[in-house]
Amino acid sequence: MRRLVWRPAELISCVAETESARTLRFRVPGWPGHLPGQHVDVRLTADDGYTAQRSYSVANPTDGDLVELTVENVPDGEVSPYLTEVMQAGDRLEIRGPVGGWFVWRQESTAPVLLVGGGSGIVPLMAMIRARRLAGGRVPFRLLYSLRDPARRYYAEELRRPDPGLDVTYLYTRSAPEGVSRPARRLMLEDLAEGGWPASFEADCYVCGPTGFVEAAADLLLALGHAPERIRTERFGPTGG
To answer: Which pTM value belongs to this model?
Structure first.
């Protein structure tokens, strides 16, 4: 089993996704590569030696020594405020990984894919979408992206671009934009029935988001007849940022 080690990582660029989230691109010398869906540990060390550590999903497919993280600012957090408000190009921290081997998509798979993301749970799913596009894959993808309101959309411009074989459906829970027929509400059975794949298609389902969202989505997929072994979940809860 490969031993994970801490590696120095230098921030080379960043871009705002929303008012409270941004994507940071790091160069990590010696990075072994990663699979879409994996995550990394991030460690900050203060001048007095105090350390703070958090885990974040990787947003990009493997690309040499580059690692992209999209981070939401958690109020009163120890790590996310620094990453989203303070860190600038040239600054350094430490990254360890990649971590995880179950919640991953491999491009050799030929099964249709259903991605169900809640809030910042879109991040590892976006890595899968980008990996498919980069490989020129023909496997059909469907993304159901649940979020509070349009202002919280990550990767908004990228997801608007035509991407043959990728269907994107937005599901708003608090405030829906004008012209959208679906009212703002939580994820429902009919959302997955209409926007997902029929169980008979034997799709691989990836669900990521807050614990309550993930549990509800997985239960709905089971109710629709999807096989348990085809439903892969990744959840997160309050961590202090």
So the answer is: 0.95
Q: Of 1.10.3720.10, 3.40.1280.10, 3.40.50.80, 3.40.50.2300, which CATH number belongs to 113-236?
A: 3.40.50.80
4 alpha carbon, distance to own chain's centre: 22
Sequence spans of domains, the chain: 6-98, 113-236
Pairing of the two strands 141-147 and 166-172: parallel
Six token digits for residue 97: 């990984």
pLDDT in tens, 124-142: 999 999 999 999 989 999 9
Residues 6+ apart with CB under 8 A from 37: 57, 100, 103, 104, 105, 124, 127, 128, 206, 234
The long-range contacts involving 150-157, CB below 8 angstroms and separated by at least 24 positions, are 150/175, 150/176, 150/177, 151/18, 151/19, 152/18, 152/119, 153/17, 153/18, 154/17, 154/18, 154/21, 154/70, 154/120, 154/122, 154/123, 154/126, 155/17, 155/122, 155/126, 156/17
Residue in this structure with the two tokens 């939580």, named with its chain if needed:
186
Look at the domain 6-98 and name its fold. Elongation Factor Tu (Ef-tu); domain 3 (2.40.30)
The two three-digit tokens of residue 230, written as one number: 């085809």
What whole-number distance in Å separates Cα of residue 236 and Cα of residue 226?
A: 23
**Is 156 in contact with 70 (CB distance < 8 Å)?**
no
